[in-house]
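ugh ok so i messed up the first submission bc i forgot one of the chains. this is the corrected input, ALL of the components this time, i swear. 698 residues overall. if the numbers dont match what u have on ur side tell me asap before i send this to the collaborators (the ones from the other lab, u know who)
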Amino acid sequence: MKNDFAQRTGVIYPIIQAPMLGVSTPEMAAAVSNEGGLGSLAIGGLSPERSQTLIRQTKNLTGKPFAVNLFTHTIPPYEESKMVPMRRLLLEMAKERGYALAESELQNFRFYTYKEQIDVLIKEDIKLISFTFGMLDDATIQLFKSNGCTLIGTATSLKEARLLQESGIDMIVAQGLEAGGHRGSFLDDEPLPQVGLFSLLPQLAKQVHVPVIAAGGIRDAQTMRAAFDLGAAAVQVGTLFIASKESDAIPAWQQQLSGVDATDILLTRAFSGRWARGIRNEMMERIEASGIPIPPYPIQNSLTAAFRKLAQQANDSSYTNLWAGQSAGDAPADNTRDIFRFLVKELKG
Amino acid sequence: MKNDFAQRTGVIYPIIQAPMLGVSTPEMAAAVSNEGGLGSLAIGGLSPERSQTLIRQTKNLTGKPFAVNLFTHTIPPYEESKMVPMRRLLLEMAKERGYALAESELQNFRFYTYKEQIDVLIKEDIKLISFTFGMLDDATIQLFKSNGCTLIGTATSLKEARLLQESGIDMIVAQGLEAGGHRGSFLDDEPLPQVGLFSLLPQLAKQVHVPVIAAGGIRDAQTMRAAFDLGAAAVQVGTLFIASKESDAIPAWQQQLSGVDATDILLTRAFSGRWARGIRNEMMERIEASGIPIPPYPIQNSLTAAFRKLAQQANDSSYTNLWAGQSAGDAPADNTRDIFRFLVKELKG
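and heres the new structure output, hopefully the right one now
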């Protein structure tokens, strides 16, 4: 299985840098790929133009394989009236906090889907495509495959993994409950996500026939060894790279990763309308405590985006998402290359 | 650490049969201890007389060390008026289902605490005492220690583990979110338990100084190996023994363990007022959907007890708790001895 992963992806080490929209950058992906791992560029929900720019930036930084990550959710009906209470709450909180958030920034959203990014991926000849939040449609799978792509889906349960496998996907990320950021779930994720990596990974490794990649809680020799014991063909590491200098995370977020307790890293729908794991903060708590129904993803994500951007510009960790996995902690270095080299050393040691 | 565990407990293999009140029996505990593992007898909440009877039965079946497991929760104020809506719902459901449940069985409860069991444990000279749902008080710890006891607490977070360690406990069970039955949590378990074994175990193994025992999802060679990689000194196995012939679980429950999907094994407070993981069924869903506030443990546990007993007598899996971990599945044998021998073979293999 391990050889299978390396062979299919063209990398040396079975270690993937997790795609983290808002955190990972062309510089981060390239640094990992240049060291013989698989870097990932996250473009979920971005415009075709922006996607192309990021892909080209990454290509300029590495000649090695890297993966491009898509979001494969559907867009729910866009109902302006249902957004009114949440919009009012956000404007109120922003005002209290001293941010000049305009009501115009909280409406008339333009949502991009992965279908609008297909042309760019084909044009840029991207051979490794990972995705999360759902399935790829059959026509797109056929198109990518005819272009020689390897496709990597994301599952949070055995049911999801089986559906991905049946659709013809080449590899599957088993995303344990421990993982930071958005859950990749597209079935059965209510009322709260449930399956831990220690159960999910061996179930998938035994019951699906494609290579399975472990995600959630992986950060050193012992967690990598445990993941391989449980049947992983490769491991995916996210949180460890958030504090690197190639990360787009704000300094206040990066600092909080050190010393945070797992019981303060919670699943929430507050920021985006989709379950995601991050460090507890005021924005999360106030939105949840408000009792206002949270619009589904990506509506809530767009509703909170302008506010979060203002907070980020002010390095204000109380009013932006602080994604983190349950094994957050000090990183072994301050830059992507050295964090990745640490992982390789741990893997070999 | 492994040697430490064997040395302290006097067993050959670092494998514990999990205490499972309502499932585990003197026969089960003795079968495991006789094979060189650590059997566990669960007596949480039982009367001193019943506790003594079970301990003596176990002693009659094995001369080897076994652990006795206590519940260390406190008893919340008992408010009859607050129980009225739940009592009404239970009586209504029982009537619909055709069970002759009497209102008199749903009141005037007598709750036993671990303090009432101490005399029996000292008199019976029990040397291995495990506990869950909280801390032991200092005086009891001193008493047990002066009697040469080894004490094993249960933690679901690093904070809980640190408190247990500070209180002078000898070993700690790291109970991952994957584990079946009741959560051992005594801090921070709202709104839903969160920490997966893959994060919890290495955090505890690194940050507490006493041996850590892994619980949740352990069932074969690869899961045992992964647990030891993550720093466990021993593993605790529960669900695998539920379907054994020494188990008190009803046949309908035992059958459902085979082929159940992890996404149908949910955390619920419906049966006992305390978070516990079990297979989704009608009683769980109806109590949760009722919107009636669920009284805290052990009140709700006593409220539903008579109903569950009637259902168990009728082998009715829809109206009793079906505790199971997220890695439930076919057991390798139909009796405790052979299930344990399977684990030993996997451990050695």
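quick check: Residues 299-313 of chain B form the longest helix (15 residues). that seems consistent at least. Chain B has two domains: 1-75+111-244+331-349, 77-110+250-328.
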